[in-house]
Design goal:
2 domains, 8-stranded mixed sheet, 34% helix, magnesium, metal-binding
Length: 354
C-alpha cells in the first residue's frame, strides 16, 4: 500500500513539473539586447524555427512517402541534389518570404540570390537548408545551418551580393538545427550559445542547453581519414598525435551538423583540410563555415583556416569554399602550432633557396 502511494505521488509530481522556457519566450526576453531592433530579428528566428518544424515532420516520414534518394540534378556546388534538399530549400524560402523580415536569401541549392520581394526588410539570410541529406536514406542525423546579416544595401531595393559578403564578424545571428534522435535548434546572437529541443506533442522548442560552453580540452577528433595520405604533414602529425593520446578517439559520421554538435558539447576538434580534389577546402564559407565558427567562438572554442580565425576571412564570392578547423582551445592551439612551424620551415627553405 505504501509503495503504491509513493509511486502515485511520484507520478503526480512528474505530471506537475514545469515544461521549461519556450523558444518564443526566450527570444522575447533576449530582444532587449538589440537596441536597434524592433522585433524583426526575433520574428526572423521564429520563422526559421517554424520551417525547421516542417522539415522535422518531412524527415520523420521520409521513408513512407518516397522522398528519399537523389533528385537527378546538381546544385551550384556540382553535388547531386537529394529530394529532401529541394523540399527543405522550398520550405525555408517560403517561411522566410512569408515572414516578411528578409529581403534576400542565399542558399546552397541556388546559383543566385533569391529575392523575396520584401524590399523594406532589414535582413538577409545565408543557409544550407539540409546538410548531409544523402544520409537520410540510412537514418543518420542531418541538419540545417543558417547565418543572418543586417543588409548594407539601401532599404527599398533588392538584395545584392554585398549584403552577404560582409564577413563573419558582421553576423547578427547564426546557428543550426540538428534532426536526430531529437531535433535541436542551437543559435547565437553574439551573447552566448543556447540550445532548444523540439517537443513534438506540443509543437514547441524548449530551452534544454542553456549557455553552452565548449570544454577547453577534448578527446575527440573528427576527420575523414580516407584522405589521410592527401593531408599536409602538419595535419598528419596532428592526427597521429591525437591517436597516441590516452582516451582520444576518432568520431566521424560525415554529417557536418552532427559531428559539430557532438564536439561542441563533449569537446574535440573538427577538421576539413585541403585535399587534391579540394585544394581550397570543401565547406562553404558563407553558410557553413561562418555560422559554425560564430557559434563555436561564442561557446569558448576556436575556429581556424590555417592562418587566421574563420570569422576574419574576407569573402570573395557568395559560394566560396574554405579550409576549416573548429574545436576546443587546447586541440586548436596544438593544431595552430603545427601549422605555424610548418609555414615557418617553408619560408626558411625558400629564403635559403632550397
Amino acid at each position: 500500500m505504501a509503495d503504491s502511494l509513493q509511486k502515485t505521488m511520484i507520478n503526480n509530481h512528474n505530471l506537475a513539473l514545469p515544461v521549461g522556457t519556450t523558444l518564443d519566450r526566450f527570444i522575447n526576453r533576449q530582444q532587449e539586447a538589440f537596441p536597434y531592433a524592433k522585433g524583426e530579428l526575433s520574428q526572423l528566428l521564429r520563422d526559421i524555427a517554424l520551417a525547421s518544424k516542417i522539415i522535422n515532420r518531412e524527415i520523420n516520414r521520409a521513408g513512407l512517402i518516397d522522398i528519399t534518394g537523389a533528385l537527378g540534378s546538381e546544385n551550384i556546388q556540382g553535388e547531386a541534389q537529394q529530394k529532401l534538399d529541394m523540399i527543405a530549400n522550398i520550405r525555408f524560402i517560403r517561411a522566410l518570404v512569408n515572414g516578411g523580415e528578409v529581403v534576400g536569401i542565399l542558399s546552397e541549392e541556388d546559383d543566385e540570390i533569391i529575392q523575396t520581394g520584401n524590399v523594406n526588410a532589414k535582413y538577409v539570410v545565408a543557409m544550407d537548408p539540409l546538410d548531409g541529406s544523402s544520409n537520410i536514406d540510412v537514418n543518420v542525423s542531418i541538419g540545417t545551418i543558417f547565418s543572418i546579416y543586417r543588409r548594407v544595401s539601401p532599404i527599398g531595393t533588392p538584395a545584392v551580393e554585398e549584403d552577404f559578403l560582409q564577413g563573419g564578424r558582421k553576423q547578427v545571428a547564426a546557428g543550426y538545427i540538428l534532426y536526430g534522435s531529437s531535433t535541436i535548434m542551437v543559435y547565437t546572437t553574439g551573447k552566448g550559445v543556447n540550445g532548444f529541443t523540439y517537443e513534438n506533442s506540443l509543437g514547441e522548442y524548449f530551452l534544454s542547453h542553456a549557455d553552452i560552453k565548449m570544454p577547453e580540452n577534448g578527446k575527440i577528433y573528427s576527420v575523414n581519414e580516407a584522405y589521410f595520405e592527401e593531408f599536409s604533414n602538419p595535419i598528419k602529425d596532428f592526427i597521429v598525435d591525437m591517436r597516441k593520446q590516452s582516451g582520444c578517439m576518432a568520431r566521424y559520421i560525415g554529417s557536418l551538423v552532427g559531428d559539430f554538435h557532438r564536439n561542441l558539447l563533449k569537446g574535440g576538434v573538427y577538421l576539413y583540410p585541403p585535399t587534391r580534389k579540394a585544394k581550397e577546402g570543401k565547406l562553404r564559407l558563407l553558410y557553413e563555415c561562418y555560422p559554425l565558427a560564430f557559434v563555436i567562438e561564442q561557446a569558448g572554442g576556436l575556429s581556424f583556416d590555417g592562418t587566421q580565425s574563420i570569422l576574419d576571412i574576407i569573402p570573395e564570392n557568395i559560394h566560396q569554399r574554405n579550409i576549416t578547423y573548429l574545436g576546443s582551445k587546447e586541440q586548436m592551439s596544438k593544431l595552430k602550432d603545427n601549422l605555424d612551424k610548418y609555414h615557418a620551415l617553408i619560408l626558411e627553405q625558400m629564403e635559403n633557396g632550397l
